[in-house]
Give the backbone structure.
Amino acid sequence: MTQIDLRPLDDYNRELISQAYPPDWQNPKPNGRYNLLVIGGGSAGLVSAIGAAGVGGKVALVEKGFLGGDCLNMGCVPSKTIIRSAKVFGDIREASALGIHVPEGTTADFGAVMARMRRIRAEISHHDSAERITNMGVDVYLGAGQFTGPHTFEVGGTIIEFKKAVIATGSRPASIPIPGLEAAGYLTNESVFFQLTELPPSLAVIGAGPIGAEMAQSFQRFGSQVTLFDILPQVLGREDAEAAAVVQNSLQRDGIDLCLGVSIREVKQAGGQKVIVYEDGGQMLELVVDDILMAVGRKPNIEGMNLEAAGVAYGKRGVTVNDRLQTSNSDIFAAGDVALKYQFTHTADAAARIVIQNALFLGRKKFSDLIIPWVTFTDPEVAHVGLYPQDAEEKGLAIDTYTIYLKDTDRGRTDGEETGFVKIHVPKGKDKILGATIVARHAGEMISEVTLAMVGGVGLQTLTQVIHPYPTQAEAIRKAADDYNRTRLTPTVKSIFDRWLAWRR
């Protein structure tokens, strides 16, 4: 099995290892051909394996690292755990405006924050443990493996035969070729949650996308002096510009130094520190930091599987699949980060459900039919589903946009959270929801109402009839629907109403 550097080796990490990477694990011996071979024990792989076994399939799961994948070990679970701690500092910052006076000099105990993260991760690891998966009817093989043919896969000298297979090997942090960076060393989300035990006094975060913005804000609140770099002129460069501006202002209020629209030319070492040489507006500048966190996206894990032997096509973006998630070998599917544009745990889950239906039951489910929301877990959060205005423009769709600001809701005012908004896009003159962006403290919870409406074909006219508890920030969704409803009161309709009501007086 692959050796993984996990620090510190405390009770929590020992518990994690015992569940997700048991060192004394004995692989089973194959007994005939499997209905489904699953390669990768992350979100897509586990859902595929457990779901297929649950309907009676004979299933094998192969994982060379920690079961639970990136989400459990180095992604969603640890990051959201420390983000929760960081949000407390956001509350402290705003406390005086709410009549609460917090003593000056309140600081974070980074060691305690990370210990809490390790504890919660270890607790959740029981859900993805080798023993639990085995008890659910899946044969679990731990170790690296590779295809030896279109319907065979080898692990530790054992040949596994399969009727259908799904590649769900996920992704890993990407990097960019900056001269001197490799020699100087840098952190990724993997090393932050697997090896980092002390808070860097100063930290440069390269990449102001979702991961970079989330980690920059958290580490700044914990006490690092963070500088956030990006070649684009705004944070969250692919996000709604107004939403990105709200987050950008929040990051600046936290004290983060923003170096946007710049190009990093070189990284040098100076003693125990690192020097970032970057160009800003034609001027060469230098920044000295204690550490660097690389957050420039993900790259698919396609190496070492001998995909050629199985007749599986792939490229820089991962395994190539059609809309039914089949690879160039029609008996092999792929799901999750290794094959999909939308690299989210919930997308991997949804894709795995498509694979089960299409691979085992001759299903015709299409990935393109999914309506996928996503969230950036900064403070405030940014949640989105469906089309952006620029997407509609590219498709030649004329749209109307209804925007309600949280300051115009009573709950937004009572909470002191007035910078966010709900923005919903519909075809011009119609109520079908094409997309939405929400910026709020709990935007990730609010977006599901809009997503459900889109999945169910429910338009804004119907949302006007949904009774929202008062006072809640989600009322902004209904208010946006009310704004649409008012557009239906055309001069002609108003004239008819006026005559009718005058006659009824």
